[in-house]
Amino acid sequence: MAKPRVLVSTDWISDVLADALSGLDIEIVRGTPNVPPGPTIYAKEDWPELFGNTDIAVVSPITVLSREMMEAAPRLKAIMSPVIGVESIDVDAATDLGIIVGHGATPENFLGMSEATMLLISALAMQLPYKEQLLRDNAPRPKVLTACSVRNRTIGLIGMGRIARGVVDRLQGWETEILYFDPYVEQDQAPAGTKKVDMETLLKSSDFVSVHVTVTDETKAMIGAPELAMMKPTAYLVNTARGAALDEQAVYEALKNGTIAGAGLDAFVDEPLPVDSPLRELDNVILTPHMLGHSKDVMDSLPVAALANVGNVMKNEPPLYTKNPQVIEKWKARIASMG
């Protein structure tokens, strides 16, 4: 009997997973290496080799897996993302085709991002980069301070998923008002101490606006010039989600022109952030290379999750961390049809 065939994309995080998966009784085939910036899109002439007899595909967020590719994989049972994000995978198409999608939604991962969000909020409020530079320049203590406390401020969360809920938990005791906008989470489904509002109210009322969405047609560039203009000139924008959730040029203009006070950005449209990005010229933005919430704890958890996800599917069981659980019955039927 042939070994299960697992496609693993080729980039730094996928390399870690390939090493972890090598101990399983499987055949591993590697995809075309990623060449930054931009995502990996497999050439159509390579599809027969990559997808023709593949049972499981493990692809990072910088590797596109489209409906056409899935249709070229008649034996494909599951698609796995090593991390939380699945925006490079057409999850709707996978669900329609009866393919289950797993991801690396470990507590270490999503709570690490919650901690990263709190770090940016606090650093922006207390102007950490500015104060650090004062010391490095041996500059005198300024007579007038413009930093603020997070206490008594309003935090606006766009999206109420795992990471945002972790932020709410970590804000307990900080004496803040917490607003949220999420059309798919009703008030009675949200954590205690939060208040559901519409987007306009959140933007106009919040001192810190923090983005926690996956990128879909609905959320792509959801924060642009009109939304930024609604924010207070003293407010800060935080994005630890995905760069494509923001209109990056509009954010740059808002920061440059003082429409908002500042921003903390851990994700960008193009990654790594291009060396000529105008965001690098600004002194009112904290920029980190989409790894602020990453730690040894997170990186140790991802291979464990990948092994559990792939191992479960090899036993015809759902992944430990399943992104589209509504597909399970259709997925079982797809597996049964393969014989």
Walk me through this protein's architecture:
The chain has two domains: 142 residues, NAD(P)-binding Rossmann-like Domain (Rossmann fold, 3-Layer(aba) Sandwich); 181 residues, Rossmann fold. It is 35% helix and 15% strand. The chain contains twelve helices and twelve strands. The strands form two sheets. It has a seven-stranded parallel beta sheet, with helices on both faces. Strand 6, helix 7 and strand 7 form a beta-alpha-beta unit. The longest helix has 19 residues.
Task: Supply the key terms.
5-stranded parallel beta sheet; alpha/beta; 339 residues; Rossmann fold; 12 strands; 35% helix; elongated; 12 helices; 2 domains; single chain; 7-stranded parallel beta sheet
Please render the helix and strand layout as text.
Blueprint: E1 5-10, H1 12-21, E2 27-33, H2 47-51, E3 56-58, H3 67-71, E4 78-80, H4 91-97, E5 100-102, H5 107-125, H6 128-136, E6 154-158, H7 162-171, E7 177-181, E8 194-196, H8 199-205, E9 208-211, H9 225-230, E10 236-239, H10 248-257, E11 262-265, E12 285-287, H11 296-314, H12 328-338
Parallel strand pairs: 1-2, 1-3, 3-4, 4-5, 6-7, 6-9, 7-8, 9-10, 10-11, 11-12
